[in-house]
Amino acid sequence: MQEALTILDQLDGQLLLWLRSAHCNFIDEVMEEVTGRRLWPPFYLWLVWFMVKRLGWQKGLMMTLMAGVAVGITDWTCASLIRPEIGCLRPSNLAGEIAPLVRIIDDYRGGPYGFPSCHAANTACLAAMVSLTLRQRWVTTMMVAWCILVSYSRVYYGVHYPGDLLAGWLVGCTIALILWKVHKLITQRRGPKQAKCPRLRVRSQ
Fold this sequence. Notes:
The chain is an all-alpha fold. The chain contains seven helices and no strands. Helix 5 packs parallel to helix 7. The radius of gyration is 23 Å and the shape is globular. The N and C termini lie far apart (86 Å).
């Protein structure tokens, strides 16, 4: 078992180095914008506007709030529950064996632990919630692409292994699906009840 985990760790490290092998100043700047969250406010404001336009202001805002709660739970689960328990160092952490091989951008190394990736988990959770709510193929494609782009930026910056991303995606999608199921159960129970048809009394002639 220990040998299998060691092999997986080695493959994770090799995949990390391969995924970030192609780099230049232009890509550095693009990844800085993506991972630095400066693109996030306009994109998410547009997303809220689109959901309100698509679903109506009441349901649109309610679903936006539910998506925010889902992302908050996801972030807390990854950062406060799983990371301290697993204690897996980031590739950029100087205490790690792979750190000398990782090119650091803008002296950014992140916190001590990186498993799972909060960026990957949060964007995956949001992508799942929006996709389940709107049920439009192009929206789902856009949200999945955004999730992959944000997640890749963390690997490019050397602060997460690919395995961190996979774990984050799993956590985010699971929490989104659970909350979506709970929401559906609540709305079904609160739905309008069908009126019972009164029995017609037939008078005997």
